[in-house]
Amino acid sequence: MGREFELKYQANSDICAQIRKKYKDFVSISMETTYYDTPCRELEKRRWMLRRRLENGQSVCTLKTPLPDGSRGEWEVQEEDLSQAVKVLCNLGAPDELLTITKAGLVSVCAARFTRQAASLTAPGCTLELALDEGEFLAGEKRQPFCEVEVELKTGSELEALGFAQNLAREFHLEAQSQSKVQRAMALAKEEMQ
Question: Which residues contact 60 (CB under 8 A, 6 or more apart)?
């Protein structure tokens, strides 16, 4: 299991341009993400997130689950077929309960379409991915634009990654984004259902 440690901040296009100018060497990735759940929302009840993301056309399926320390467990596999991906994710260590839950079928609930500008950085005591995401959440006919900055720890110290992220936030006047993309997309889906 991978353990995800990342920090998210609200941003705008001007801030992202300033960060790109400072850190350079960003790679552009086109992202199309669809979030899935069972018809009875069994994954949402457990605070699990199952998505299929096209990254520059390459299909990557991911399961994320909450961990007791506040971080998230994360399993990923390159797979086109979501039902096959569920089996592989469980073989990689995702909770076996996922197989049972998803026997009822999966439905797409909401989505996000965005461009990620990503740079790999080495900071004291860690390596990081700095990602600048601009795009929109989609749920039925509803659309909601978003722009955010993510700092994700790849290797090394969480404390050092936190320090880097806090310095970045101070320098560029960033405010923390407390909700994940899936939480914001799900909120839009709930608005669409009303």
Answer: 52, 53, 54, 76, 77, 78, 79
